[in-house]
Amino acid sequence: MNQRIGFLIVGFTRFAFIMRLAPYEPNYKPPTNNESFSKQTS
Question: TM segments (predicted)?
């Protein structure tokens, strides 16, 4: 249970961080699904 909560927290903070930087990145493309999202973060 703790692992799942930690994963959600890390995922949410990553998502918020990416959304914060999105307007400042000229070549930013919004993820269409989980696959492209994982490619964007890694």
Answer: 5-22
